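Researcher: Here's a chain I'd like modeled. Treat it as a single chain, no partners, no ligands.
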Amino acid sequence: MDEHDWLAKRFEDERTRLRAVAYRILGSLSEAEDAVQEAWLKLSRCDSAEIENLGGWLTTVVGRVCLDMLRTRASRREEPLEVRPVEPAPGEGAARAARPSDPQAEAVLADSVGAAMLVVLDKLTPAERLAFVLHDLFAVPFEDIAVVTERTPASARQLASRARRRVRGAQTLPQPDLGRQRRIVNAFLSAARGGDFEALLEVLDPDVVARSDNGMAGALSAVRGAALVARQAATFAQFAQSAQVAFVNGGMGVVARVDGRFRVMMFTIAQDRITQVSVVMAPAEVARLDILVPASADTDAVDPR
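Model: Modeled as a single isolated chain. Structure tokens:
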């Protein structure tokens, strides 16, 4: 085994943990995969002989990459939404077929603690989120977190402490009602099928954002505002006719086959209103999603294999 193969094996041994770190920081499986792949690229280009603790080094690199991604995400929230190119994600990204749920999977989803935590973390600043996840969830020392955040260890400790207080405060709130969220998604689908503009406005947050890859991995379009999103009911209608409610990456979504191709719509719901809609149509991106169709659904109609 040459040095490159040995390094690749060591990296694969760390991949699962690194992906878990990145996912809890970013809240997105696809972005987590990108962050982990970026860590591999950095490792393959450096002098590995100088790395004393490979696991710690990789965690630091993934943390830096995630922090940059969070900061970029935060800055884009203030920019006008428009069509912009997106670099295709590196790596293989094996397909995950939609599958009927089993009791254990249903229990995990019903618990909703993970989803609730991600909602809380999204309220933190990028640095607070990273410090809390690395230290409280993965026991990374503050000295290492300080390197990632470019702060002193004492400042890193303060970041985690501040984040911890906010998380504990938020956890006293009621947990998301998945049944209610599903009813909201069903109401959206019903309104979309009928092209009912007023009914769509009832379930859409005034500042809702709808994003779509337009069927191309490498393109992203977005529309903001309930009126603009509702006016796209005609484009939703064909999708909605065959759509079935599903859990996508642990959240509420729907899956449908349109013109022989599978399309996925994901929703973010807050205070009984839909705040985000993400439409994924590019086959490569659909294959990267973790789709779980409830046992009561007609799974043969939505099997994307």
